Prior knowledge:
The protein is 28% helix and 13% strand. It is α+β, with helices and mostly antiparallel strands. The protein folds into two domains: 18-120, 3-Layer(aba) Sandwich (Vanillyl-alcohol Oxidase, Chain A, domain 3), CATH 3.40.462; 124-176, no CATH class. The longest helix has 15 residues, at 95-109. The chain is globular.
Amino acid sequence: MIAPVPYVQLQKSIDAAVPHGMHRYNKMGYIPEITDELIDIIVRNTKEISPYSMILFNVMKGAVTRVRPEDTPFPYRGRQWYFDITPQWVDPEEADSLIAWTRAFWDEVEPHTQGTAVNWLSPDDGLDRVKAAYGPNYSRLARLKHKYDPDNFFRLNNNILPNANGWKKHNYFDTA
């Protein structure tokens, strides 16, 4: 599976591994360099893994690296690895243990990462992870959010708050 592929083919490449109705949770980050220490962390944390779980590495290079970080909301444009920890389960009773495993594994991996993708934020991720997803572009995007959505109408996700520092009062999932 190591070869250039069209974007749609890449998007469909793991469809069979993520069937509809399966429960999942994930943590994702960009890794500029795969070190021996990181490999040791991954091996140690995947000795026993749920049969449906996935650990993904995708290399980022080519066209994505030729766009200046400030030209789009997404700033992570260097040659790097996309790394994803995704446990999946059928039995809802497994949720707590697999989420705990993911969080503990992520706590070890995160120091090796540089940012994340907003698409992969979990409901329990807070403003710091949102800021990590946009990196140095967050302040500029917060100013735009303040201009076009000052009341944070589009708030039912981990979103950019309408000012650079974040509101003192915020609840990403408040429906009021």
